[in-house]
Design goal:
heterodimer; A: 8 helices; B: alpha+beta; disordered N terminus
Chain lengths: 170, 356
């Protein structure tokens, strides 16, 4: 079996399928928290997944890889909205973007995270997704102490913000 | 890190965790990860091919695109320098390989009439199927829509919970319709064959897929987008009527099965399932009827709504009585009349086919 340069061998394909199904929603949620609207979050997630798939056999940590790629494209796109979009439209992945956006507008947790400074937002979003502080430190290229202090600040700010929004304790 | 678990009990953490979970669950409803996955794999491996196809990507494009990806050794359009071909298939299942004549799709917008000269060609469809019930005009019109695809065994045509909206008109072969029960077991809900329509419920009501449709062997089908399907219904009142009838027949069959099964023992129920399968999918030669749908014992069990061990016992009894012969994934009925007697032989219920 010759490994194709444009993707993994068939075994890797199944690996990728599992990874995709497990992480697509998580990555979209992460991007939503960072401020991307639903259609863009889906598109960026899809683009990052495609990029990962193309290099699947050479990536050691797929999760860190797609999170990094997606965030990087997100920032690039935010700085330059004219950049060409991915060729695969988000509509394939998100068949009803308007409905999704409408529903998302009611999800206050997004507002709460978006109100945070970027670093705190990233650390808190990753923590909610189940990343360990050490993994977050590696992903963001900061030390563990910085992760902890950002997480503390993020939680404090999030608490204040959710109270301002009138959210009660569960 | 010790402090983390303590902090985890604070209200803000519970609030965040709860709302995050809600968000994730809600997102899963909106995201069609099946279509996305297919699109991703296709995009990575066959980007050149996609542009060669020159199709406008729409909601069904992800699926359609992967369905049109060539298998290793298959033909590839000469205009696409293209990546080396690999054995492509839907992920998650090793034998979900797909066959497709790419050129056919590439030109499908110019190719209105259905090509009848290739593959296991369309044949006469049973009158109980949608295609068998249509008049020539409506049949030709329907067959001119969509793209013809060929699938190997084990391909998933649609997956439960996905929000895809396409419709398949099965031309040849057998598919299984399965659903997942709340405790995670797979239940076989129905079998459909050449002439049948699958996926029309969701094309009509926009709900998530209610079941998974998997090919049981080589299958040839027409893939129609929701838009094309609905437009065809609007244009053609005969088609509309027949589609409505086929949907009603599916609903009636599922009602009938529920009523028939109430208060009957496993042996009777199994005999009825076999009889119905034979009526609809049987291939008769002399007194012997071979059921062409390859069903496993586990699937017979879920069709009969009894435990697999019970089905095995019931099958054994029928076998010992010389009524049936069983092989690997095949059941032959040796004595139709005897089976009919075990089934109860009500003349009224024998008219009710189990599946449509």
């Amino acid at each position: 079996m010759n490994p194709a340069p444009d993707g993994p061998d068939p075994g890797g394909e199944q690996d990728f399928a599992r990874f995709y199904r497990e992480h697509l929603g998580r990555l979209v949620a992460y991007l939503l928290y960072q401020g991307a609207p639903a259609h863009l979050a889906t598109e960026l997630a899809q683009e990052a997944m495609v990029t990962a798939y193309e290099r699947w056999d050479t990536i050691s940590s797929p999760r860190s890889y797609v999170w990094t790629v997606a965030y990087r494209i997100f920032i690039r796109r935010a700085l330059d909205p004219e950049l060409p979009a991915a060729e695969v439209p988000e509509q394939v992945v998100l068949p009803h973007p308007e409905e999704a956006e409408q529903w998302l507008q009611k999800q206050l947790v997004i507002d709460v995270l978006r109100a945070l400074p970027p670093r705190q937002r990233q650390v808190l979003a990753l923590t909610l997704d189940g990343w360990a502080p050490a993994e977050i430190a590696v992903l963001l290229g900061i030390n563990a102490a910085a992760v902890r202090s950002n997480l503390m600040k993020a939680r404090r700010n999030a608490d204040e913000h959710r109270r301002r929004l009138g959210e009660q304790d569960p | 890190m010790t402090g983390r678990s303590e902090r985890g009990r604070e209200p803000v953490d519970r609030w965040l965790a709860g709302r995050h979970r809600d968000l994730r669950n809600g997102l899963e409803r909106f995201l069609d990860s099946g279509a996305g996955l297919q699109a991703a794999i296709l995009h990575a491996g066959h980007a050149d091919l996609l542009s060669a196809l020159g199709t406008t990507l729409d909601a069904d494009a992800g699926l359609e695109a992967i369905l049109t990806s060539p298998t290793a050794g298959g033909s590839q359009p000469s205009s696409a320098p293209g990546p080396p071909q690999r054995e492509s298939g839907l992920p998650g299942n090793a034998d979900e390989h797909l066959l497709k004549d790419v050129d056919e799709t590439r030109h499908r917008r110019q190719l209105a009439p259905r090509p009848t000269n290739q593959g296991p060609g369309p044949k006469e469809w049973p009158s109980s199927s949608l295609l068998g019930s249509l008049d020539e005009v409506s049949k030709e019109r329907l067959l001119a829509l969509g793209t013809k695809h060929q699938y190997l065994k084990g391909s998933v045509l649609m997956r439960e919970g996905d929000r895809s909206r396409h419709v398949f008109v099965l031309l040849d072969g057998v598919v299984k319709v399965t659903g997942e029960s709340p405790d995670g077991r797979m239940a076989l809900l129905a079998i459909r064959m050449g002439g049948d329509l699958v996926g029309e419920f969701e094309a009509l009501d926009d709900e998530p897929r209610s079941s998974t449709v998997t090919t049981c062997g080589a299958v040839v089908g027409l893939l129609l987008s929701q838009a094309d399907f609905l437009a065809a219904l609007r244009r053609d009142s005969h088609l509309q009527l027949m589609v409505t009838r086929s949907i009603l027949a599916k609903l009636r069959a599922s009602d009938a099965r529920r009523v028939e099964f109430a208060g009957n023992d496993a042996q009777t129920r199994l005999a009825r399932v076999l009889r119905d399968l034979a009526q609809r999918y049987g291939n008769r030669s002399g007194d012997r009827v071979a059921i062409q749908a390859p069903v496993t014992q586990a699937e017979l069990a879920s069709l009969t709504s009894v435990a697999e061990t019970t089905v095995q016992k019931a099958l054994r009894r029928l076998r010992v009585s010389g009524i049936i012969a069983t092989g690997r994934g095949s059941v032959d009925i040796l004595d139709v009349n005897a089976l009919e007697r075990v089934a109860g032989g009500h003349s009224d219920s024998s008219d009710i086919p189990l599946h449509h």
